């Protein structure tokens, strides 16, 4: 069995005129929780979409469980995606389906199972996230945290080997955040899945991650265990992890000096 | 001048790209092995939401349009003393033109815009992306049933519209204005040709149904996934569909009349 579930080499990707990744190398170890962190707009979500082959890189390779994911045929890709689950930032629940049907959806679509078995499976998934009692509710009746837990149950529905979490803690109250942190850790430990968390919530992510990659300006600016990164002397790593307002990522948007703007000739 | 030509060229390239993307979307959505287990229930659901739920607007509009055509026709025919030809006038104008065209425009406004908004919103809230990650192809699961649902609904709605409009014409012409009942129906029967008038009208509505649903699904799937983007896409669906219907109507009529 390969040591790394995901291996990325020399990843290059641009969107319109902007370079998102410029030669990124990254390994996601099997069975561990790996966090991808970095300031907003550095392409963390894009990285997940590249791993899921929803986007194609300009150059470089992304291997998932030993398969070059972008070289697969359409049917092989869909088969490979059964090994992946993804929790979207918005939850991405189907608004016309109940909680139960949302979780049952991937099972019904991918496998021919009797409804009695699907019922059992869905209840077990919902039990895992503590929402078995909410199975009759519609997504519009759920709070933000509950919606994310249902989405997590749905991401687990096909028993994936890899789960990708896109900003799982964003916009959650402290209790929900604590619940999600515990769930991610428990699921990873009990099911033995490989987890990738994209987040910029430093304390929560660092508390459960085995390894952290820090992304900025299309490159990896630091990586290591949470403890190693917390003790790093690198200025850009420190600025992000300690939330310093100014540093390598400047507080001010690039512009002329204030004097130039105040005394320019064509000012109103 | 050069800048104007450059802008024109850029706009042309954008249009060609959009046509290419829409064609590719259509090919990927509909040219594939049918999946009856999931596809048929989804198709029935779409025929209900696109077709059955459009019935009210089709029935009410059809009734009033038939009544108006009859009223206007009666006033003109009365001047020449040819009011018995009212049935023929109502039937021909509705089966050939008004039935297919108006029902298609109503469908574009009612169901086409809803299709675009629904698909656009699914895109904006990552529902389509999440489907892909669940190993479910959104083109097969979301786009294809919506396309076929609209494509099949429009001709049926056009037939219903035409039928109810003729009945509206009968109510005004015969029941209200006193045109002879026998003359109204026999004039219609002897002058409406099944092949030339009715079948051609249905052919038109089939073409319109294809065009509207293609435009609607493409605008939804290709929209900028923001509130403004979805709003613009929905507007484009109604505007483009209406223009395409009118343009295609002229082309099809010319072909049918000219025997192309």
What would your notes on this structure say?
The complex is a heterodimer of chains A (268) and B (260). Chain A has 268 residues and is of the alpha/beta class. Chain A is 36% helix and 24% strand. Chain A has ten helices and ten strands. Chain A has helices spanning 44-51, 74-81, 99-110, 115-128, 144-155, 174-191, 202-208, 226-230, 235-242, 258-262; strands spanning 4-15, 18-29, 33-37, 59-64, 67-68, 84-87, 162-166, 194-198, 211-216, 219-224. In chain A, helix 3 (99-110) packs parallel to helix 5. The model of chain A has no long low-confidence stretch (mean pLDDT 88). The longest helix of chain B is centred in the middle third of the chain and has 39 residues, at 86-124. Chain B is elongated and about 70 Å long. The mean pLDDT of chain B is 93. Chain B is mainly alpha-helical and 260 residues long. The two termini of chain B are 41 Å apart. The chains are: A alpha/beta (268), B mainly alpha (260).
Compact overview of the structure:
Chain A is α/β, with parallel strands linked by helices and 268 residues long. Chain A has helices spanning 44-51, 74-81, 99-110, 115-128, 144-155, 174-191, 202-208, 226-230, 235-242, 258-262, and strands at 4-15, 18-29, 33-37, 59-64, 67-68, 84-87, 162-166, 194-198, 211-216, 219-224. Chain A has ten helices and ten strands.
Write the layout of secondary structure elements.
The complex is a heterodimer of chains A (268) and B (260).
Chain A: E1 4-15, E2 18-29, E3 33-37, H1 44-51, E4 59-64, E5 67-68, H2 74-81, E6 84-87, H3 99-110, H4 115-128, H5 144-155, E7 162-166, H6 174-191, E8 194-198, H7 202-208, E9 211-216, E10 219-224, H8 226-230, H9 235-242, H10 258-262
Parallel strand pairs in A: 3-8, 3-9, 6-7, 7-8
Antiparallel strand pairs in A: 1-2, 1-4, 4-5, 9-10
Helix pairs in contact in A: 3-4, 3-5, 4-5, 6-7
Chain B: H1 2-30, H2 36-51, H3 55-80, H4 86-124, H5 127-133, H6 138-176, H7 181-191, H8 194-222, H9 227-258
């Amino acid at each position: 069995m390969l040591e790394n579930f995901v291996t990325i080499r020399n990843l290059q990707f641009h969107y319109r005129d902007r370079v998102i990744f410029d030669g990124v190398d990254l390994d996601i170890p099997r069975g561990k929780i790996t966090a991808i962190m970095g300031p907003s707009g550095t392409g963390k979500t894009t990285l997940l979409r590249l791993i899921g082959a929803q986007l194609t890189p300009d150059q470089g390779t992304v291997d998932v469980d030993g398969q070059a994911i972008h070289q697969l045929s359409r049917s092989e890709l869909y088969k490979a995606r059964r090994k992946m689950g993804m929790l979207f930032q918005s939850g991405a629940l189907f608004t016309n389906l109940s909680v139960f049907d949302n979780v049952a959806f991937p099972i019904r679509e991918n496998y021919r199972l009797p409804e009695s078995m699907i019922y059992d499976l869905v209840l077990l998934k919902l039990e895992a996230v503590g929402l078995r009692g909410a199975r009759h509710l519609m997504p519009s009746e759920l709070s933000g945290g509950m919606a994310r837990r249902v989405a997590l149950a749905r991401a687990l529905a096909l028993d994936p080997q890899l789960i990708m979490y896109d900003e799982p803690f964003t916009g959650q109250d402290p209790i929900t955040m604590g619940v999600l942190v515990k769930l991610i850790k428990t699921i990873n430990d009990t099911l033995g899945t490989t987890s990738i968390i994209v987040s910029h919530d430093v304390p929560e992510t660092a508390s459960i991650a085995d390894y952290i990659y820090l992304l900025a300006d299309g490159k990896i600016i630091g990586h290591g265990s949470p403890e190693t990164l917390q003790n790093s002397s690198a200025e850009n790593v420190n600025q992000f992890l300690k939330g310093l307002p100014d540093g390598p990522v400047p507080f001010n948007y690039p512009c002329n000096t204030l004097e130039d703007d105040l005394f320019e000739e064509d000012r109103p | 001048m050069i800048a104007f030509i450059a802008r024109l060229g850029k706009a042309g390239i954008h249009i060609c790209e959009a046509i290419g993307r829409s064609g590719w979307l259509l090919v990927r959505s509909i040219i594939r092995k049918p999946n009856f287990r999931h596809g048929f229930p989804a198709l029935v659901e779409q025929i209900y939401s696109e077709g059955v739920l459009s019935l009210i607007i089709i029935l009410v509009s059809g009734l009033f349009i038939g009544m108006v055509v009859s009223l206007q026709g009666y006033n003109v025919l009365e001047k020449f003393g040819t009011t018995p030809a009212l049935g023929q006038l109502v039937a021909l104008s509705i089966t050939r033109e008004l039935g297919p065209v108006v029902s298609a425009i109503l469908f574009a406004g009612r169901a086409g815009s809803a299709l675009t908004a629904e698909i656009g919103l699914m895109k904006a809230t990552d529902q389509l992306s999440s489907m892909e990650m669940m190993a479910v192809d959104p083109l097969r699961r979301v786009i294809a049933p919506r396309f076929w649902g609209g494509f099949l609904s429009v001709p049926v709605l056009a037939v219903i519209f035409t039928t109810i409009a003729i009945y509206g014409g009968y109510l005004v012409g015969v029941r209200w204005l006193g045109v002879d009942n026998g003359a109204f129906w026999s004039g219609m029967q002897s002058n409406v040709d099944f092949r030339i008038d009715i079948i051609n009208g249905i052919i038109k509505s089939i073409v319109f149904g294809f065009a509207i649903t293609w435009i609607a699904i493409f605008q939804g799937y290709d929209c900028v996934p923001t509130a403004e983007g979805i709003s613009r896409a929905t507007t484009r669906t109604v505007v483009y569909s209406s223009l395409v219907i009118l343009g295609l109507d002229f082309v099809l009529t010319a072909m049918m009349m000219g025997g192309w």
